[in-house]
Amino acid sequence: MTNITKQKLVAKLDEFEKSGLYLRTNFSLSYLTMYCETNSKYISYLIKTYKGKDFNNYINELRVQYILEKLRTCPHYKNYKMSTLASEAGFSSPNKFSMIFKKHTSYSPSIFIKCMDK
């Protein structure tokens, strides 16, 4: 991969992060490769090199960061059920959402929200 290709793909990843496409429940590596107009080997390499994680952890972190931002900026999100937050962030189930949220924040979503209110 040339440096020019790397730069273009890193710019595409930045654009992707702003797009919110990762919030789709069925989002996959193949969809990201189509979005970036490249192959999965290049995308996986760039995510590993520039983001320091594999594809699944990268997408999950983007989703958790999205919900954290919504909780900070939109107070009504604190009243949503876990299933609604999970769906909003693109997770397939509330349990998976809670598990990944806790992995990234060290708190369950409900405890995190309660702490925000204090």
Automatic annotation (TrEMBL):
UniProt cross-references to SUPFAM superfamilies, sorted A to Z: Homeodomain-like (SSF46689)
| Residues in HTH araC/xylS-type domain copies | 7-115
Which InterPro entries does the record match to this protein?
Homeodomain-like_sf (IPR009057), HTH_AraC (IPR018060)
- Gene3D superfamilies in UniProt: Homeodomain-like
Give the keywords, sorted: DNA-binding, Transcription, Transcription regulation
Q: Which GO terms describe its molecular function?
A: DNA-binding transcription factor activity; sequence-specific DNA binding
| Annotated PANTHER family | ARAC-FAMILY TRANSCRIPTIONAL REGULATOR (PTHR43280)
Its protein name is Helix-turn-helix domain-containing protein
Organism of origin is Chryseobacterium wanjuense
